[in-house]
Amino acid sequence: MFTYTLRRLLFAIPTLLVISFVIFALLDLAPSDPTGDLPLTIPPEVREQIRASLGLDQPFLIRYMKWLQQFFINEPINIFESLTGWQVGDGQRMRVLSWATRSPVVDLIVQRMPQTLWVVGLAYLFGILIAIPIGVISAYKQYSIFDQIGTFISMVGYSVPTFFTGVVLIVIFSSYLQWFPSVYDTNLQVTNVSTFLAQMRQMVLPVAVLALYNASQITRFVRASMLDNLHQDYVRTARAKGVKEKAVLLIHVLRNSLIPVVTVIALGVPTIFSGAIITEQIFRVNGLGQLLITAVQGADIPLVQTLTFIFAVLIVLFNLIADVLYGILDPRIRYD
């Protein structure tokens, strides 16, 4: 297992380099100009000076190599210095800067990440905790009333887009019943019990929208995988040996059924960090999803490049984690 993991990590390096080149090239070739929003009265030579200050007067490969240096070397060193308080070198190193704010891109991401983790992370966690027992019971009691209701709700929750579900919940629980706020207050500071309760109240609607969508998707996979394993020979053998039904269901069947589900869950984890773009727009959650939308609208290419590449890194990482979990869940899977 260790050899396999090390081999996959080494293979991930050229993979991420190719992904970074593709992302950088696509966004660099996009028809966007950082001086496009400036007044037309600005002389062309001033526009060229602005482009030169942003480094756009240099060749493509030079800019790409500088971006790699800033992302893989300078930014990790800066994070290490901020965490430990130690200084590496003179501290005067180039960082990936936003064209719009001229602030370091990593600082903007770190500033927005807590809001996204609070809302999207909790929604994903609740979705998993809800989906697994519903999927198990639905498969075990196939065609029962519980199975039919659960299948119907999961079909609706997975088919209906989140922007529609969010608007419906806002109309019912914010406008009509006035139980929960419709706008997420990012500036709220949790300092006492009342502010903590206010934080929980404003998180209910966006978390409910995303949890319903995530639970609906995962429930379908859990139910299908459980049904596939419930009729296998090892289940009949375990029952013939007198193993209790609960042990057969929760130890033997569930463990093998989670193997394909792990892939779905692992590949969904990067969406926690990318943020639910549509849901954050509906409830005005000032997270990473809204940051990406703002960067795209403002043609802030360095911010878009960095965010997109971070999402790619997370996908590669959690793919590796899913493969390692396969060997833990199923002893028959051996990589070495």
Descriptive account of the structure:
With 336 residues, this protein is mainly α. The chain has 2 domains: 2-84, no CATH class; 111-329, MetI-like fold. 74% of the residues lie in helices and 0% in strands. The chain is globular, with a radius of gyration of 24 Å.
Describe, in short, the structure shown:
The protein has 336 residues and is an all-alpha fold.
Task: List the main descriptive attributes of the protein structure presented here.
single chain, 336 residues, mainly alpha, MetI-like fold, 2 domains, 13 helices
Topology:
Blueprint: H1 2-29, H2 44-53, H3 60-84, H4 105-140, H5 145-159, H6 162-176, H7 193-230, H8 233-240, H9 245-268, H10 270-274, H11 277-283, H12 288-297, H13 301-329
Integer count of domains: 2
CATH third-level topology of the largest domain: MetI-like fold
Distance between the termini: 6 Å
Strand/helix succession: HHHHHHHHHHHHH
Note the total helix count.
13
Arithmetic mean of pLDDT = 80
Largest sheet: none
Q: Which CATH architecture of the largest domain would you pick? A: Orthogonal Bundle
Shape: globular
Name the CATH superfamily assignment of the largest domain: MetI-like
CATH top level of the largest domain?
A: Mainly Alpha
The fraction of residues assigned to DSSP E strands is under 5%
Rg, nearest Å: 24 Å
**Poorly predicted runs of 5 or more residues:** none
Helix content, binned percent = over 70%
Transmembrane segments: 117-140, 152-176, 196-216, 258-283, 303-329
Subcellular location: Cell membrane
Family: Belongs to the binding-protein-dependent transport system permease family.
InterPro entries: BPD_transp_1_N, MetI-like, MetI-like_sf
